[in-house]
UniProtKB/TrEMBL annotation:
Positions contributing to Fe cation binding: C105, H147, H151
Source species, domain of life: Bacteria
CDD domains: Pep_deformylase (cd00487)
Protein name: Peptide deformylase
Active site: E148
Database matches in InterPro entries: Peptide_deformylase, Peptide_deformylase_sf
Species, as recorded: Polaribacter dokdonensis DSW-5
Length: 196
């Protein structure tokens, strides 16, 4: 089932996600719905807060990035296979010289900004069957992971841009929170007044 994506301004996007266990209600169905919602919106990642749930869960399918002509064969192959469910992930280490990349977010349509992040991340997470894995990601895979991880920490990519950029996009962000935006997918806006 395709779920509405929560828009910028909703308090759930600022909540620290709580850990879940294998008894979380309807988890398999939730994961399937999140994937369907992500694909419907042409996203490469979707975190639970973006569908209104403040839990430590996100899905990633970065295979669309594998089409980028600027990638080397190794990174292209990695991204083609980078399709995961992350439950209760923890970043163990971030390293390397920071690099900048233009990011966007399904909760913040039509806003894209350059964000600086470390290129390599070591992490631990549980899969859908609650098996624990340790993984090292780098390049675009690391960036997609870090972006989604920020969501379960209550952080948005717009928090990472300069104060000047924040002032420049302030009006756009206010309009998104008021529902004054067109998106090609279902959204839930926090500041829409209910009609009586």
């Amino acid at each position: 089932m395709i779920l509405p994506i929560v828009a910028y301004g909703d308090p759930v996007l600022r909540k620290m996600g709580v850990e879940i266990d294998k008894d979380y209600p309807n988890l398999k169905e939730l994961i399937a719905n999140m994937k369907e919602t992500m694909y419907n919106a042409s996203g490469v990642g979707l975190a639970a807060p973006q569908i209104g749930k403040a839990i430590r869960l996100f899905v990633i399918d970065a295979s669309p990035f594998a089409e980028d002509d600027d990638l080397d064969d190794e990174e292209r192959a990695t991204l083609k296979e980078f399709n995961r469910v992350y439950i209760n992930p923890k970043i163990l280490d971030e390293e390397g010289e920071e690099w900048t990349f233009n990011e966007g977010c399904l909760s913040i349509p039509d806003v894209r900004e350059d964000v600086t992040r470390k290129p390599k991340v070591t992490l631990e997470y549980q899969d859908e069957d609650f098996n624990t894995h340790t993984e090292v990601l780098d390049g675009l895979a690391a960036r997609v992971f870090q972006h989604e991880y920020d969501h379960i920490e209550g952080v948005l990519f717009t928090d990472k841009v300069s104060s000047l950029k924040k002032r420049l996009i302030k009006r756009k962000l206010e309009n998104i929170s008021k529902g004054k935006i067109r998106a090609d997918y279902r959204m839930r806006f926090p500041n829409l007044k209910k009609k009586k």
